[in-house]
Design a protein that fits this description.
With about 210 residues, the chain is of the alpha+beta class. Helices cover about 50% and strands about 10% of the residues. Strands 2-1-3-4 form a four-stranded mixed β-sheet, covered by helices on one side.
């Protein structure tokens, strides 16, 4: 890729966009950061609402095109750097499972977790996008009964998404104790890139706090 192919990541430290930053680092992608201070409400200002009218991070700009929504960003970036081998190729035997777990995260895990955090009952089964949160977690953990990662022995972008999201939820005691989950989260979050990004995020967050 050339200098013109640099990816801009709209990022708020210690938020959902941290996963996208980790993915960029894992991919070895050329990127720059447009850092938002969410505690100062910058994500709700007109400049950023022009990027994402919902005021959410992450978002990326690449070759003049904006991509929002965490899972769309993961699919886009991992496919953009096939040499990193974090996404099965289109037509490959594992592509369907890869897409399944990425979309399962957005369609089932995220809404279920929000309901749990808000202490809300899920919608009736006929209307709920995820059924029950316990069923979501059971389905996910069943996939890891006999393998270290969702697609087998090798990590993928889907694992980076899930591993860091589960780690965040576990910090807030929103997940049940599970040796399978604990081991999986450790395998993903203890990679050198994750530690480097965590340190970078902590520094950004400290600077933002000092500026308030």
């Amino acid at each position: 890729m050339t200098g013109d192919d640099t990816i801009t990541l709209f990022h708020a430290p210690q938020s959902r966009s941290t996963g996208a930053l980790i993915l960029l680092e894992e991919l070895g992608a050329p990127y720059d950061l447009h850092v938002l201070n969410m505690k100062a409400g910058e994500q709700r200002q007109p400049a950023y609402l022009a990027i994402n009218p919902l005021g959410k991070v992450p978002a990326i700009r690449h070759r003049g095109v904006l991509v929002t929504e965490q899972v769309a960003i993961f699919i886009y970036l991992a496919d953009l750097f096939p040499e990193a081998r974090l996404a099965p190729p289109i037509g490959g035997a594992l592509r369907g499972a890869y897409l399944r777990w990425l979309v399962f995260y957005a369609a089932c895990y995220e809404p279920g977790l929000v309901d749990k955090a808000m202490k809300r009952d899920p919608a009736p089964l006929a209307m709920s996008p995820y059924g029950s949160f316990d069923a979501v977690l059971d389905t996910f953990l069943a996939e890891l009964q006999t393998k270290p990662y969702l697609l087998g022995d090798a990590i993928s972008a889907a694992d980076i998404l899930w591993g860091h999201a589960l780690h965040w939820a576990s910090l807030f005691k929103m997940l049940p104790n599970s040796e399978i989950m604990t081991g999986y989260v450790a395998r993903v979050t203890q990679r050198p890139v994750a530690a480097r990004v965590a340190a970078m995020d902590a520094e950004l967050a400290a600077k933002q706090a000092a500026a308030l």
